[in-house]
Design brief:
single chain; alpha/beta; 2 domains; five-stranded parallel beta sheet; 11 helices; 5 strands; elongated; binds adenosine-5'-diphosphate; binds magnesium ion
Length: 250
């Protein structure tokens, strides 16, 4: 390696942009081949670093969101759920719902892709400037109860209210008692018209009284959730079942 290359690479390290060490030679070759001037070369090189930094911050946001798995909207097979409005889901991918602080509700049987769609939209949201968190209803309620009993509820609610998108998965798998319902109501009220929620449930709203001990609070929660919301009822069959049926040639 020539002295100038060595010096340049040391400078990249000193400036904490050492990712450029792996790419500057290619950028330089391209610039020479395409007869770019110094300014154009410099701008392309800096663009490389910007892309690298953005990529790093998206990855950090995805890690922070704590998704249960990584599945994109593009990987969703809409032909398997013909009842689902594909155009509407794709429109939501533009993230206008985050700007408008609207909610999205996915209701349907296990295995129809509710979590997949929630994660897919969550991933899209992470690619933008927004903050996202994914949590199951059971974990959320446990967390809120611990915070409440430890006198830390306000702090916890503040943390959740600062997110641009909160995904609450699997409302309905566990019964929700009076205290938990109250805590959930406080959280939903705090985010109301301030930040989006994506919520999934295996129960339609009509059946939420089977999940909640307190049907009055349940109604109040539903009321706030659905005021500005896109609601999807997914009635198809489980995708997990599809794979099983195919394997057994049924
Ligand atoms: P739910 O949350 O409704 O119980 P999931 O979203 O967890 O269902 O889906 C179960 C599994 O099947 C996941 O691995 C998911 O990626 C996959 N899946 C469900 N529906 C589809 C679909 N239409 N296209 C592709 N994969 C799907
Ligand atoms: Mg699920």
């Amino acid at each position: 390696m020539s002295d100038i290359n060595k010096r340049l690479e040391k400078q990249f390290v000193q400036l904490q942009i050492k990712g450029l060490i792996g790419v500057y030679k290619t950028v330089l070759d391209n610039a020479i081949n395409n007869k770019l001037n110094y300014l154009e070369f410099l701008s392309i090189l800096l663009e490389e670093e910007i892309l690298r930094k953005q990529d790093g911050s998206i990855k950090a946001k995805i890690a922070k969101a704590k998704f249960p798995f990584i599945k994109t909207i593009e990987a969703f097979d809409f032909s398997y759920q013909p009842g689902l409005n594909q155009q509407q889901i794709l429109r939501l991918s533009s993230l206008e719902f985050i700007e408008k602080k609207e909610n999205i509700i996915f209701l349907g049987n296990p295995g129809v892709g509710k979590t997949h769609l929630a994660v897919g939209l969550g991933l899209k949201t992470c690619s933008s400037k927004y903050r996202v968190a994914f949590i199951t209803a059971a974990n959320l309620l446990e967390e809120l109860q611990i915070a409440f009993r430890g006198g830390m509820l306000t702090d916890r609610l503040l943390y959740y209210s600062r997110l641009n998108l909160l995904i609450i998965d699997e409302v309905g798998y566990m019964p929700i008692n009076k205290e938990q319902a109250n805590l959930l109501f406080q959280l939903i009220s705090m985010r109301y018209e301030k930040g989006s929620i994506i919520l999934t449930s295996n129960y339609n709203f009509d059946d939420w009284n089977k999940v909640f001990d307190d049907s009055v609070v349940a109604s109040a929660i539903i009321d706030r959730l659905i005021h500005h919301a896109h609601i999807f009822y997914i009635n198809g069959t489980s995708y997990r079942l599809k794979n099983k049926l195919a394997k057994n040639n049924i």
